[in-house]
Automatic annotation (TrEMBL):
InterPro entries: HTH-type_LysR_regulators, LysR_HTH_N, LysR_subst-bd, WH-like_DNA-bd_sf, WH_DNA-bd_sf. Gene3D superfamilies: 3.40.190.290, Winged helix-like DNA-binding domain superfamily/Winged helix DNA-binding domain. It comes from Ruegeria haliotis. This is LysR family transcriptional regulator. Residues 2-59 form the HTH lysR-type domain. Belongs to the LysR transcriptional regulatory family. The lineage of its organism: Bacteria, Pseudomonadati, Pseudomonadota, Alphaproteobacteria, Rhodobacterales. It holds the Pfam family HTH_1. Keywords: DNA-binding, Transcription, Transcription regulation.
Amino acid sequence: MIEIRDLQLLSALARHRHFAKAAEECGISQPAFSMRIRNLEDRLGVSIVRRANRFQGLTEEGEMIVQRARRILDDTKALEQQVLAAKGEITGTLILGVIPTAVAFTGRLIKHLRRAHPRIVTRIETMSATAIQHRLDEGSLDAGVTYGDSIGTDLRQVQPLYEETYVLLVPSHMTDRSDPIPWARVADFPLSLLEPQMQNRRILDRIFAEQGLHPDVVAETSGFTASMVMAREGLAATVVPRVLVRALGDLKGTRVLPLVDPVVSKPICLATLIRDPELPTVEALRAVVTSLR
């Protein structure tokens, strides 16, 4: 019989597309990992992995097996959670993919989930909106907090969370103004922004392009922490979501200026796959979201 553990290893390999990274995630050595994959191929009588000096991808049969494996793993996870839920407790690990701009909001959301269901352990993974959609589809995420206009609704359930708006976080020595600032003036400051492939950066680049602006980008980061530290240290200004500044409170040495002309807002949502049966942990999360609206 095929073991659930073998399906977990295969799913990790398909996700990472790298034997060593997949083995590390699964907590076993690479030689042992490779041996189990080969044993699975021998048991099924087909080649699952295309090999050369390194991982070259999955065979056609391998892609089919991975799709089946993910459904089996999803059903197994649901069964385990439902058995515990029948005993009166919702428990398990909830894996959330979150865009960088929504991390602060997600932290508050998990606080409410924890109060309602203290046995749920939440794993928050920060990633792009594109990665969230991909990993939801492959079943390696339970839910995603992402841009509402970047997620398809076919086979997914979407719940609105809030509207993302933006402020300029600027070192105090660079300006003495405290009133809202038009986007056209943002280009006057040296800026630290997210990397170009991130959805938030694409939003900002589109605004700059529409206004014919050429911002002075002096640093690019994969998250907001480094950019906010640079603002506090007086090196560069940055554009951040208002919800993030509210969550962190006063940042010494900076000014927070609402951005206007235009006032830009983007819908943030909770996205989950439509499953039957549903994971109790995901049902619990959706119920918390509904209670907060």
